[in-house]
Amino acid sequence: MNRKDKWLYQNFIGSMSNPDEYQQYEIDKTLAKHNIIGLYALIALVYLSIFFDIEREFLSPFTIGGVLLLIVLGCRMSMSRFSADPLEIEVKDQEVYHKLLRETRNKRIIFLIITIAYMLLTTIVIAPILAGNSLNFAILTKFSTYLPLIVIIIFTITKDSRIKLIDERGKHDE
């Protein structure tokens, strides 16, 4: 274990000794899950801040800083040599393949519903109330309101490319 990992596990996690491989795996899995939740929370807060600033007609430092932080995080994740390998799930059985596709689609649909509800409530109800303005339902007729939703819907509806069906007959024929 290198010095940086040792410092992380001892100071940040609170471990007194060096954890074994299973403990490292569980700690890394928990940290990854919390980081993803934190990233989603940051994106939701920046989205709220953007619409709050639109209602107040003022650009706040939180919005500027949040957008810059998201840009820096995106650049670091794309350029980091420690990024996660792309996950591929290889399945031999047709039933299991379709079951996995259904499960991932259902999870994405639940995420889509929560995201659409949050985005519309933020735009129509939460930001105007926080800014002290009246509720504006006329924004529902504008196309720009639905543009982010259309992008999210497209990503939700597409088939999960991580799940692959392996044809065993092709391997035996060679």
Summary, kept brief:
71% of the residues lie in helices and 3% in strands. With 174 residues, the chain is mainly α.
Q: Can you describe what's shown?
A:
It is a single chain. This protein is mainly alpha-helical. It folds into two domains: 1-84; 85-174, no CATH class. It is 71% helix and 3% strand. It contains six helices and two strands; from the N terminus they run αααβααβα. The chain has helices at 3-12, 21-56, 61-79, 94-131, 143-157, 168-173, and strands at 89-91, 163-165. It has a two-stranded parallel sheet. α2 (21-56) packs parallel to α4 and α4 (94-131) packs antiparallel against α5 (143-157). The mean pLDDT is 79.
Number of discrete domains? 2
Q: How many H/I helical runs?
A: 6
List how many beta strands DSSP finds: 2
Distance between the termini: 44 Å
Task: Report the mean per-residue pLDDT as an integer.
Answer: 79
**Largest sheet, described in full?**
2 strands, parallel
Q: Given the helix and strand composition, which structural class is it?
A: mainly alpha
Spell out the helices and strands N to C: HHHEHHEH
State the helicity in percent bands. over 70%
Beta-strand percentage? under 5%
What strand line-up does the widest sheet have? Answer: 1-2
C-alpha geometry: flat
Uncertain segments are none
Radius of gyration: 22 Å
